[in-house]
Amino acid sequence: MDNCLFCKIVEGSIPSNKVYEDERVLVFHDIQPAAPVHVLIIPKKHIASMNDLASEDLALISEMHRIAQETAKQLGVADSGYRLINNCGPDSGQAVAHLHYHLIGGSKLGALVQ
Ligand code: 5GP
Ligand code: ZN
Q: For this structure, is 100 an active site residue?
């Protein structure tokens, strides 16, 4: 997708600090971490938001959850705990219109909604 920041990260024209990659999913460190561990889990395919998920994407979403679980182990937060967050739409503060989950942990996290 032209002009999509995360599509550019997928194709490599914008660099990222990768944690995991396979044919369908990429995990990389957030450029402005909100906690000691903050990575983004994205599909390589452009899906703008949760609102744009189709039933054919369900297997992909399952894979992303499994990869989140493995990433939490790899980054040492599986036992201490973490959050997996998706922002969808303006009120959530979604800034990048390419579906992504934030995996955040490594310290005690504050209240989710203020
Ligand atoms: P959103 O607010 O859309 O849920 O989250 C977008 C996230 O992408 C933010 O946490 C932001 O720090 C991160 N981000 C924005 N631009 C870049 C970038 O160029 N590289 C990386 N690694 N993360 C980015
Ligand atoms: Zn995209």
A: yes
